[in-house]
Design a protein that fits this description.
Elements (H helix, E strand, L loop, with lengths): L19 H26 L3 H8 L19 E3 L4 E4 L4 H4 L3 H6 L2 E11 L6 E9 L2 H10 L6 E2 L6 E4 L2 E6 L2 E7 L4 H17 L24 E3 L12 E8 L2 E9 L3 H17 L3 E3 L7 E5 L2 E8 L2 E8 L2 H16 L7
Antiparallel strand pairs: 1-3, 2-3, 3-4, 4-8, 5-6, 6-7, 7-8, 9-10, 10-11, 11-15, 12-13, 13-14, 14-15
């Protein structure tokens, strides 16, 4: 017996010949394969026009809404491609905070990184959260407000920290979060933010509900909007709050609009029942229709004015809380709030 020959050494059986037609077909197949390979090489060596465009513009349509696109400051360069996320995959980008955005009417988010040309290690990431409404944008802006923030005259709702810029522009909530406190980097982020507000079509820019809070003793820029499950109660939705400093105590006033006065009274009692069911104790006194619940070392004062549910949340001291609740009732009684 002899060992098997390698495949490369196999010869056609004696007497077999290859016809001219078969040789022509083989040459044709080889030629086609060569042409395909050449095409692939040419395509790999050429740039996609979309890539060339992305290198020339600051914010591509995938980075922000087309109406809000604007040139980036000369000091910046693109650092990586734009990204986009929807309600199904927002967790991939901001796991841990996605629920807050989804509850507030999130539509989509676009982000991209930019770096200083002279110092590529200095960069910031630009986020545009498209929400379904101005209240939704304000809600995520206000409930995440940094304590060290300094107000900015950029839009009605805007502030900066040592390494970031945050603002609301119509239905958009925008963040520019930098890798450091580099002054040139933050200045470039502010320039981009200003360009965004100038080219956007913001629509509604002011929340009338914020005007319903009395101005005396109000802590500036302390308003928030809790879209759902305010104060841990799933019956409280779209609750606006504001903080006050009265007689050395920091207090939180709140209000929310209901369909009518009967609905406001029902919600008052439902919230009181919730507090009592979680260890609260009802206190006597107060104005007619007002309920006071002592719970977890604080006092909740809950009342109604027309179709509004209002009051003071978790007050550490009763006397200034009573004064604030009375001020709220008086201010709301004289305000035109029924159209809310």
């Amino acid at each position: 017996m002899t060992a098997d020959r390698p495949a490369s050494g196999v010869r056609p059986p004696t007497g077999c010949t290859v016809g001219r037609g078969e040789r022509v077909a083989s040459f044709f197949i080889v030629a086609v394969l060569v042409l395909i390979a050449a095409g692939i090489l040419v395509r790999q060596r050429s740039f996609n026009p979309a890539v060339l465009v992305a290198r020339q513009v600051s914010l591509t349509p995938a980075a922000v809404p087309a109406a809000a696109s604007s040139p980036i400051p000369p000091a910046l360069q693109l650092l990586g491609p734009p990204e986009s996320f929807n309600a199904d995959n927002l967790y991939d980008k901001i796991d841990g905070k996605a629920e807050l955005y989804l509850a507030a009417g999130f539509a989509r988010m676009h982000c991209q990184r930019f770096a200083l040309k002279q110092a590529p290690d200095e960069w910031f990431e630009w986020f545009v959260y498209e929400m379904n409404s101005l209240p939704g944008a304000f809600s995520v802006f206000s409930t995440q407000r940094r304590a060290e923030g300094q107000p900015l005259p950029l839009t009605q709702y805007a502030y900066r920290t040592p390494n970031a810029v945050y603002f609301v522009c119509g239905n958009n909530y925008v963040e520019a979060v930098a890798s450091s406190t580099n002054a040139l980097l933050l200045e470039a982020a502010l320039q981009m933010a200003a360009a965004f507000t100038q080219t956007a079509s913001p629509g509604l820019t002011h929340l009338r509900e914020l005007d319903l809070f009395p101005s005396a003793d109000l802590i500036p820029a302390s308003h928030t909007l809790q879209i759902a499950d305010a104060f841990g109660f799933d019956g409280l939705k779209n609750v606006f709050t504001a903080r006050y400093q009265i007689s050395g105590a920091e207090l939180t006033a709140f209000l929310t609009s209901c369909a009518d006065a009967a609905e406001a009274a029902r919600l008052r009692d439902a919230y009181a029942t919730f507090l009592l069911g979680n260890g609260g104790k009802e206190l006597s006194g107060g104005q007619p229709g007002e309920r006071r619940i002592e719970i977890m070392g604080g006092t909740e004062i809950i009342c109604t004015v027309g179709n509004l549910l209002t009051g003071v949340h978790s007050a550490p001291v009763l006397q200034p809380a009573e004064a604030l609740a009375a001020r709220l009732r008086q201010h709301l009684a004289s305000s035109d709030h029924h159209a809310l």
